[in-house]
Specification:
This protein has 466 residues and is an alpha/beta fold. It is built from 16 helices and 16 strands. A 7-stranded mixed beta sheet has the order 4-10-9-8-7-5-6, with helices on both faces. Strands 11, 12, 13, 15 and 16 form a 5-stranded antiparallel beta sheet that branches. Strand 2 and strand 3 form a beta hairpin. It is globular and about 70 Å long. The mean pLDDT is 96. Bound molecules: pyridoxal-5'-phosphate.
């Protein structure tokens, strides 16, 4: 290698062929690798990305899965990570390092009711840690003996590992991966647009939350130790619980001594206009998990944050042969490695210094307002969102709410992309309900960029359903 930048050089056709020959892409039917050239992204600045053929797109998905909160091309993050890597790239999390101490402190400032931070690599892993905490506590804490089961909500997603999938309420996504882990129990979703109890908000007594008690009692409250929920269901279709929902769920958790696990993997770090998604509600979960926006995807990082009482369940006496193994016996090689934590520190500084929460509120309101104008189209059944997070549900008939077909949805997505805009969608998650387009742009998005996104969607709707 002649100089340190040689490895950044490439030949376009060689890369395209290399992609086809060697890569197994995420979440795509494999047959398409044989015939279609996959998009290869080579550069990004702000919300704009460029592919290997030189075509530019406005990305309204923060990197495809809602994680690049501060936008692409942040030199200050790259420089901070570079400096840290030169100083100390890695040592296992059994010892401390400076970025992890600083970032844990920063997280706890943002979560004043919580006390300890456990770092890992991905959202799935952060949730697995939460499940392991609940399960181990059911063995070692006399007050929680036998409380090993974890409840989860229909339509929520908690990750790709078998444990996290066992806790995921997306039937189609789970297909083909069973059998799942024993001890995970589903309860109903809380999507008003398709109320599981056929009720209307205002006249429903929040039955979707109250009925959870039936599930607890059916399973046996003395067997349930945890309940995981997304503050706002993300990949399941941007589903916002009503304000009364979480206080009811929390009262049930407190009544039956169930630790609530709030999965902030998507909603955290300003996505919904508050730093945490659950801040929109009166709720105080025992465990909070987070990933994606943590380091704005400039590094792989996740965290499981707990209240003191959870941590205290693991304060064993190491000299007592009976309880000597009762500490949280878990490790993750890259959990808390210095590069990702440095990226997280700098990304969080940017969110604070550039008032990106404010932008999420202001421009988020504008995004939702603009998207609502699309309700004029017959195929737009529902538009919902909060902050810089929104979804459109497409239907063939507003009265029956019959979803559009998968083929139409694919065509619609292609037509948005033809306008050089990238948006997201529910993807092979539910039988017959993969009809929701989603928007989660970087927190730096401007009103002008929102206009471009909404115009692209309008054009695509007109083209697809002419
Ligand atoms: C709410 C939620 N939790 C957990 C995960 C899993 O995170 P990861 O893909 O980093 O494992 C995701 C991923 O999309 C998610 O949306």
């Amino acid at each position: 290698m002649e100089n340190k930048t040689d490895w950044l050089d490439y030949d376009v056709e060689e890369m395209v062929a290399g992609d086809k020959n060697a890569l197994w892409h995420h979440l795509k039917p494999h047959k398409c690798f044989e015939t279609q050239e996959q998009m290869i992204i080579v550069e990004g600045k702000g919300l704009m990305i460029k592919d290997i053929r030189g075509r530019e797109y406005l990305d309204a998905t923060s990197g495809g899965v809602w994680s690049v909160m501060v936008g692409f091309g942040r030199d200050s993050i790259a420089e901070a990570v570079c400096d840290q890597l030169k100083k100390m790239p890695y040592f296992a999390g059994v010892f401390g390092n400076i970025p992890s101490i600083k970032f844990a402190k920063k997280l706890l400032e943002k979560l004043p009711n919580h006390d300890k931070v456990y770092f890992s690599n991905s959202g799935s892993e952060a949730n697995e840690k939460a499940f392991k905490i609940v399960r181990q506590a059911s063995h070692i804490d006399p007050a929680r003996k036998g409380k090993y089961k974890i409840m989860y909500r229909d339509r929520d997603y908690h990750g790709t590992t078998i444990g996290a999938m066992s806790a995921t309420g997306q039937a189609q996504r789970k297909e083909g991966f069973g059998p799942f882990v024993e001890g995970f129990v589903e309860f109903d979703h809380c999507a008003c647009y398709r109320c599981p109890y056929d009720k209307t908000y205002g006249n429903c007594d929040i039955e979707c939350a109250r009925k959870v008690e039936d599930v607890i009692l059916k399973e046996g409250a003395d067997t349930i130790g945890g309940m995981i929920v997304e503050p706002i269901t993300a990949g399941g279709g941007i589903l916002l619980p009503v304000k009364e929902y979480y206080p009811i769920l929390q009262a049930l958790c407190r009544k039956y001594d169930i630790w609530m696990i709030m999965d902030e993997v998507v909603c955290g770090f300003g996505r919904t206009g508050k730093f945490w998604g659950h801040e929109h509600y009166e709720v105080d979960p025992e465990i909070i998990t987070m990933a994606k926006g943590l380091a704005s995807s400039y590094g792989a990082l996740s965290a499981t944050v707990v209240k003191q009482k959870v941590y205290d369940a693991f304060l064993n006496d190491p000299t007592d042969p009976e309880t000597r193994l009762n500490y949280f016996r878990d490790i993750s090689t890259y959990g808390g490695c210095t590069a990702a934590l440095t990226a997280a520190l700098e990304s969080t500084r940017i969110i604070e210094d550039e008032n990106l929460l404010d932008n999420s509120v202001q421009v988020g309101a504008y995004l939702n307002e603009k998207l609502a104008t699309l309700k004029k189209y017959d195929v737009v059944g529902d538009v919902r969102g909060l902050g810089l997070f929104a979804g459109i549900e497409f239907v063939t008939d507003k009265a029956t709410k019959e979803p559009i077909s998968e083929g139409q949805m694919a065509q619609l997505m292609g037509n948005v992309m033809a306008e050089n805009v990238i948006v997201g969608r529910t993807n092979s998650s539910f039988h017959g309900l993969n009809n929701i387009m989603n928007f989660a742009p970087c927190l730096t998005i401007t009103k002008e960029q929102v206009d471009i996104v909404v115009a692209a969607v309008a054009t695509a709707i007109e083209k697809t359903f002419k």
